[in-house]
Amino acid sequence: MFCIGHSHIDAIHMAAEERNFPVEAINLWKLPGGPLGQCDAQGKSRFTDPVAARLTAQVGPIFSHLGGNPPAMIGTLAHPRPFDFVLPSEPGLPLDPGAELIPSSAVASILRKIARPWIGLMHELARLGDGPIYQVEPPPPNEDSEQIAKTVLRNLFPGMSREVTPAHLRYKLWRLHSELISEVCLPLGIQFVPVPPSVQTPDGYLLPEYRGDGAHGNSAYGSILIDYMETFA
Amino acid sequence: MKHPYEDLPDERRWSQAVANRPDTAIDPVGGFPTRIRPQDLVVSAGSCFAQRITHHMEARGRYCERLETAHPLLEPEVAEAYGYGTYAARYGNIYTPRQLLQLWRRATGAFVPRETYWQDDGAFYDPFRSTIQPGGFASLEELEADRAQHFRAVVDLFTRMDVFIFTLGLSECWGSAEDGAVYPLCPGVVSGTFVPGRHVQSNFSAAQMTQDLRTFIEEVREVNPELRVILTVSPQPQMVTTEERHVVVEAGSSKARLRIAAEEACALPDVFYFPSYEISTLPGSHHFTADRRTLEDSCIERVMHLFFRHVVEEGPAESAQAPGGDQASAEATHNFVEEATRVIQVLCDEDFLDSTEEETNVLISRIFQESDAAAPVTEAESEKMRARRLAIEGDYAQAISIVEKLYRDDPRPGLAWLLDCWRAAMNPQAKTLQN
Questions:
Q1: B133: Cβ–Cβ under 8 A, 6 or more apart, which residues?
Q2: A113 vs B contacts (CB less than 8 Å)
Q3: 3-state SS class at B182
Q4: What is the DSSP string of B95-131?
Q5: pLDDT tens digit string along B152-207?
Q6: In a 3-state reduction of DSSP, which class is residue A203?
Q7: CA distances from B289 to B55, B78, B297 (A)
Q8: Interchain CB contact of A93 with B (< 8 Å)
Q9: Are B184 and B130 in contact (CB under 8 A)?
Q10: What does each C-alpha distance from A100 to B124, B128, B324, B339 come to in angstroms?
Q11: Which ipTM was obtained for this model?
């Protein structure tokens, strides 16, 4: 099994080690060139040469875990001007009465802008890969804001006075981002793979037993993903 | 006195005040009966001309209230496309006095039109703000939530404003035959479907428009009794007419009616007329571009010069940005995105922030299995992980001590960042990352 991506791939890596399961998992954060590889003369994101060579050499499916950051970047810390939006695919979700409503299409434009470098890598992946390519949806958000605040912010960033966003905003941003990435995948010939429902609460959040550090899944989550990806391989 | 014209001042004589004078020497404003003070809360609405007044006031350092501003996360071009910042709230252009009165009544719940949305290709459009949402709203829920937010802003603004500047633009409009609701644009032009019989045109008389203006002012003054109103008439002719006569003839008639309505409304106390229309359409002037309806910049400048000279009171310029305004928000957003990015980076891979090429080569070699897969982490890496664990347990002193040593050996930005965070935790009086 061959996976490439960013931080969410660590859950797979951990699970593979625990199970002694053969997974080759490239986490771009760990590589020279950083998470976005390198830019070409036109400023487009592209993989570093060794990674590009590895992708070209891949025989069989590629499971991409690229990206996943944009919803977390604007949806983990509460913005000084708290915002909310109506999710187009689930308009009945609650709205924060104290937050400013932003049009969902405008929120989509923010996510699209932040995701541009990662989307650039997806284009590169589609160009370099020769077999089937699957884009695995990032894990659903953690519903427990207090846990995020404790494990992520208050200890690692104790001077930070910002609050954590309401859970429903994190969920909406995750969903909207997934819908955008799914749209990107279609013309690239990449199959978008939603997370298995078994890891989600009835409201769509990541089940507590699969939570990692507040932003990522743990090895149990990675193990579920390995089994899930195997059904596509 | 031989006759009433004998002792008139020069300004009342065309030969003395206008004839053979350059545009810049003609000043039809004279002693304007009210002044906009630096502390006044000014709100404008109307057609395009009203937008310019606000922008010029802000350009000259005067604060104009805006409640529905773009969220600072939005790019400027996106904000503009969504109608943010054009007016104090996202009401778009208000061309007729009826539309203005209707906005107030809809915002206060006094009038609820039967046709509350139009649906095209799966998107939902607000018939009363058809240009503020590119592509429409994704759901009816979103439209209604946005409208509720908009109404709150309108009621708040109109209740608190000291001076309301309204530019009358058109006498023609389209509306509903069912309940008299009027639309800024004819159904079918941008959104919606034109249904003959259901959608009907009105071309308001001067008396109708006067009455609408008076009613609007009187109703708003029930909650805002000190309100002063400055009326202007847009000099821009209408682009099109459905009246069966030449557009120039209809434009002349329409402007005459709008001008009379403005004049008549000034019979109310503290309602004033500013003659931007007359300044712009002065005979012999060439104030329009080749399309004969767009004003030259020089004309706008002349109008604004006279507006500031006669209407806007001199005084210490207020900041063009209120606390929490666009500039403050933009700054906050910059900090926010920067902070959020760093948090996410650390969450995603703290090691990445500080890895040397040698360390990352070890990592890459593990992945590609080109060397010893069991290569140990470096001592510095191990120490940093220990410090992080201590910080999570709340032992910041020990964590800082470890990272300080690492930083002395190798002053990397990621280590400085951790030290900043943890030192702030040790000293509650220390500045937060936010400030």
A1: A103, A105, B82, B83, B125, B126, B146
A2: 75
A3: strand
A4: -SHHHHHHHHHHHTTS---S---EEETTEEE-TTSTT
A5: 999 999 999 999 999 999 999 999 999 999 999 999 998 899 999 999 999 999 99
A6: coil
A7: 21, 28, 9
A8: no
A9: yes
A10: 20, 21, 14, 21
A11: 0.89
